[in-house]
Structures are given as C-alpha cells and as structure tokens.
C-alpha cells in the first residue's frame, strides 16, 4: 500500500506529533496505546525512516519526523476542507465559511458585515472563532480559515485585504494624570518618553508599528510593560503608572474605571480593520462576503 494512501495512519501520527506522548495521543484517538504504537511503526516501515524516538517520559520527533509532521498537518487540512465541501454539496447546502474575528475589533461595522452576510446567505454555515491578527493570518495561509478580520497592514502576497472600518486612536491615561484633565487635544510632544504599556508586537506587527509611527513619530516610545489584550492594557493604565494608545471602539466599549480617554491633536492617528482572504480562494461564500463590502 502506498504510504500516502493510508490517511488513518497519518492522522494517528499527526495527533502523536502534537501530544508527544503515546498514552495521551491514544486517549485522544480513542484507541488502545499498543494499537497506536503498532500503527506508528507500520507508518515508519512504509516510509523507511524513523519518525519518533521513544523515551521514558513519552517521545520526541526525529528531524525527518518534524518535517513529515508539518507536511501531514497541511495535507490533512486540505483533505478535511475538501471533505467538508463534498458533504455540503451532497446535502445541498450553500457552503461553509470558516471565519475569524480579531480580538481588538468586535462590534460596529465588523459585526454588521457578518450580520448582513448571514441574512443574505442563511444557507451558508458560518464557523467563527476569535484570535489576534497574526494567528488569523497564519490560519489563512495554512488553509484552516477561509476569511479573517485583521489589523492591516498585512504583508502577505498570497492574501488579499479590504478595509472594513477605520477608527481613531485615543490616548488612555490614569484618571489622576496631569494630561487627563481639560478639553484640549494632546500633542505628540507631550507623550514623548512617558512610560507606556502595549500588547506584544507578535499579536499584530502591522498595527503595532503603525501605532508607534503615528503617536511617537519622532521617537520617544518608552515601553515599560506588556499586557496580553486591550482589557488588561487598560487595567494597567488604571493602576496609575502607564499610558496607552488604544482604538476608540475598544476603549469605549470596555469602560475600565480609573481610565480617562483623550484625543490627539491633528493629524488624527487611526488604525484600520480589514477583511483578509486567500487570493486564490474558490469558496463562493468568501466572494459573497467580500461583495458586501461594495
């Protein structure tokens, strides 16, 4: 039998590659541990190379095993996506849209766009999840997602991206900060070298760099703290030690006590919310969603 024709063994190996433990992998697969070991050995014989090294605490992947695991993940993703499309066709359904939101941009035009799509295409199954821009982009490139909301810019030639909304960046200050009072707008010079909090750049490199370039265009960005998301970022501001530049929609929706929001002097700093999808997609649901952007 050709090695690549036995998808069951490849699925077994994919789970083992994630768990790196035969007992845990067998439990996930709902099979006995000896049966899993036999199937992995059979796959290794088919390929003619060892894929795992067994240890007293579990196992590790060989160098070849690591490469095979990566290719297996891509292959199984393609197989699962194709199988889902076939099931939809057999059932006469309108298709399936695997969609990801970005954590920093829920509500407003984003939710309105998805609501319009659901109304216009009630026969399409929308499978939604939420993550940061970077994992959303990775999901699109891996074929695990059909479309995703992101924070541009997204520097990936394989992906197309359209702007859904543009929102103002606000300055979040502790309530007792000298800049928190009054009605005038805050100048860029006033925030130079003030201790700032930000989420990790890896969450969304494009938005991170765009924020710094607009709020601290001449330098002076003094990062002293990182928090995992906007809510924790604003809670850090409320503690009275740091400032932050935050999208207006998210900042106003969270309404964290002890935080004052101020607008910047012109030019107004902004960030976009975009919809991204693979340029070569053949999924009709993606094209229908994009068409609603006008």
Distinctive features:
294 residues, alpha/beta, seven-stranded mixed sheet, globular
Quote the distance from N terminus to C terminus.
51 Å
Coarse structural class: alpha/beta
Using the alpha-carbon principal axes, give the shape: globular
Give the fraction of residues assigned to helices: 40-55%
Q: Name the beta content range.
A: 15-25%
Count up the helices.
10
Give unreliable regions as ranges.
Answer: none
Describe the structure.
The structure is a single chain. With 294 residues, the chain is an alpha/beta fold. It contains ten helices and eleven strands. The chain has helices at residues 7-19, 22-29, 33-47, 63-91, 108-120, 133-141, 205-215, 230-238, 248-254, 284-291; strands spanning 52-55, 58-61, 96-102, 125-131, 147-150, 159-174, 195-198, 222-226, 244-247, 259-262, 270-278. The strands form three sheets. Strands 3, 4, 5, 6, 9, 10 and 11 form a seven-stranded mixed β-sheet that branches. Strands 1-2 form a two-stranded antiparallel sheet. Strands 7-8 form a two-stranded parallel sheet. Helix 5 links the parallel strand 3 (96-102) and strand 4. Helix 1 packs across helix 3 (33-47). The chain is globular and about 75 Å long.
């Amino acid at each position: 039998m050709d090695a690549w024709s036995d998808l069951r063994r490849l699925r077994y190996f994919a789970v083992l590659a994630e768990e790196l433990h035969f007992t845990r992998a067998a439990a996930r697969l709902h099979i006995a541990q000896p049966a899993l070991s036999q199937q992995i050995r059979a796959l290794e014989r088919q390929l003619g190379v060892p894929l795992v090294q067994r240890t007293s605490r579990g196992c590790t992947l060989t160098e070849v095993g690591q490469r095979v695991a990566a290719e297996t993940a891509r292959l199984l993703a393609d197989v699962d996506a194709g199988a889902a499309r076939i099931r939809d066709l057999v059932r006469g359904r309108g298709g399936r849209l695997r969609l990801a939101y970005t954590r920093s941009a829920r509500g407003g035009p984003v939710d309105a766009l998805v609501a319009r799509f659901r109304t216009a295409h009630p026969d399409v199954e929308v499978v939604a999840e939420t993550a940061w821009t970077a994992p959303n982009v990775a999901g699109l490139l891996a074929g695990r997602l059909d479309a995703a909301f992101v924070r541009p810019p997204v520097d990936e030639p394989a992906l197309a991206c359209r702007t859904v909304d543009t929102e103002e960046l606000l300055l979040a200050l502790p309530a007792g900060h000298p800049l928190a009072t009054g009605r005038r707008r805050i100048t860029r010079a006033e925030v130079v070298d003030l201790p700032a909090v930000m989420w990790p750049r890896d969450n969304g490199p494009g938005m991170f760099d765009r924020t710094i370039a607009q709020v601290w265009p001449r330098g002076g960005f003094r990062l002293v703290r990182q928090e995992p998301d906007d809510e924790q970022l604003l809670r850090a501001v409320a503690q009275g030690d740091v400032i932050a530049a935050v999208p207006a929609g998210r900042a106003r929706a969270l309404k964290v006590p002890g935080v004052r929001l101020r607008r910047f002097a012109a030019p107004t700093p902004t960030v976009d919310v975009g919809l991204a999808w693979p340029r070569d997609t053949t999924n009709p649901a993606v094209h229908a969603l994009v068409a609603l952007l006008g």
